[in-house]
Specification:
Length: about 325
C-alpha cells in the first residue's frame, strides 16, 4: 500500500464494471498478484479504494459470483453489509453474513472461499504498523471480535477516520495525521480481536520497584517532551527507555494513572496551546492548522479537549492578541 516517492496520499481509486474478466484482474491488482480468482459473472460491480499509505479503506459492492484463494502479506478486516460469502482461513471456516466484523486474512495462512454477491467495507493494515504499535510481532489468535461492543468500536473507529480524515483533503494531506490514524487503527484492532500481545496475561514486575519506576518514567517523559513534534508512538518511547511496550504501559498506569500515549497527547496539546498564544494576525495561523500540526485530527474534538484543559475555546486563545 505504501506509495512510491512523488505519489501524493491519500489516493482514491474508483472501479466499476459488469465484465467478469475485468473484475478478476482488478481484484488481483488491488489485493496482490498472488490472489487467484475465478469470476463466473459480474453485474454493476463497484469498488472504491482510499489508500493512505500504511492503511487502506475499501468500499465494495460486488453482485458477482467468484471463487478466490491467496496468501496475502497484510491484515484485512471486513465489515459485511450483505451478500453471501464462504471464507476459509487456515483451518478455520466461516460463513460471512450481513453485520459480521472479522479478520479476513493473516500472513502465513492460506485464504480462500466463494462469493455470491458481497457488500462490505474492508480495512487493510500492514503487519509492520501493527508491530510498531504493539512493540513486537502480532499474531491474532481468533478472527472474531471479543464482543459485540468491540465490533461496534471497530466500526465507529473506521467511520471516524473515513469521515474526518480521508474525506477531508486538508486533514488527509497531513502526514502526521495519517500516521496517527494508522496507529489508531492498529491499536483498535489489537483491542478488538484476540491476539498474542494485548491478551497475554504475563506481568512486567520490574516496573513495580519504586526507584526503578521513577527513573523509567522520568526518562520516558523526557523523551516524549523532546520528541512530541515527531511521529512517535508507544514502541518508540519504549525503545528509547529500553523496556518493552507492556512494561511502559504498566508503569504509566500504576504510577501516573495514565498511559504513555495519553501523556503524549497532553504534551502535544500544551504545544498547541503555546502556538495559539504566540500567534499574531500576521502569522496566518488558524485553530485548524495548529491542531493538525500537533496531530489532532478533528477540530471539533480538539476544541472540546482544549476547553476541558484550559477553560476556554482555542479560538478565544487565538484571538487574544
Amino acid at each position: 500500500m505504501t506509495a512510491s516517492a512523488g505519489v501524493s496520499l491519500p489516493r482514491r481509486t474508483v472501479f466499476e464494471t459488469s465484465e467478469a474478466e475485468l473484475l478478476g484482474q482488478y481484484l488481483r491488482d488491488a489485493y496482490g498478484s498472488n490472489l487467484r480468482t475465478s469470476v463466473v459473472k459480474a453485474e454493476a460491480c463497484r469498488h472504491v479504494r482510499t489508500d493512505a499509505g500504511d492503511f487502506a479503506v475499501d468500499e465494495m459492492r460486488l453482485p458477482a459470483s467468484f471463487s478466490y484463494s491467496a496468501e496475502l502479506p497484510d491484515i484485512i478486516i471486513a465489515e459485511s453489509r450483505g451478500g453471501e460469502l464462504e471464507r476459509r482461513l487456515g483451518q478455520e471456516s466461516d460463513r460471512v453474513v450481513a453485520g459480521d466484523v472479522l479478520i479476513f486474512t493473516q500472513p502465513g495462512l492460506d485464504y480462500r472461499g466463494e462469493c455470491h454477491g458481497f457488500d462490505a467495507r474492508t480495512t487493510t493494515l500492514t503487519t509492520a504498523t501493527l508491530a510498531l504499535v504493539a512493540g513486537e510481532p502480532v499474531r491474532f489468535t481468533d478472527y472474531r471480535p471479543l464482543s459485540q461492543a468491540t465490533a461496534q468500536l471497530w466500526k465507529r473507529t473506521v467511520d471516524y477516520l473515513s469521515q474526518d480524515l480521508l474525506d477531508v483533503p486538508e486533514a488527509a494531506a497531513q502526514p502526521l495525521l495519517r500516521d496517527n490514524a494508522a496507529r489508531l487503527l492498529a491499536a483498535t484492532a489489537l483491542s478488538v480481536f484476540p491476539n498474542n500481545v494485548m491478551h497475554d496475561t504475563r506481568c512486567e514486575t520490574a516496573a513495580d520497584h519504586p526507584a526503578a519506576a521513577s527513573a523509567l518514567l522520568r526518562r520516558a517523559r523526557a523523551f516524549i517532551d523532546d520528541n512530541a513534534h515527531r511521529d512517535i508512538g508507544l514502541s518508540d518511547i519504549a525503545a528509547a527507555v529500553h523496556v518493552t511496550p507492556r512494561a511502559l504501559q504498566y508503569a504509566f498506569r500504576r504510577h501516573l494513572d495514565t498511559t504513555p500515549t495519553a501523556y503524549l497527547r497532553r504534551v502535544r496539546l500544551n504545544h498547541a496551546h503555546a502556538a495559539l498564544k504566540a500567534a499574531t494576525p500576521a502569522s496566518g495561523e488558524t485553530v485548524t492548522t495548529v491542531a493538525a500540526r500537533w496531530g489532532f485530527l478533528n477540530p471539533g474534538r480538539f476544541a472540546a479537549v482544549y476547553r476541558l484543559a484550559y477553560g476556554r475555546s482555542p479560538s478565544h486563545t487565538l484571538k487574544s492578541w
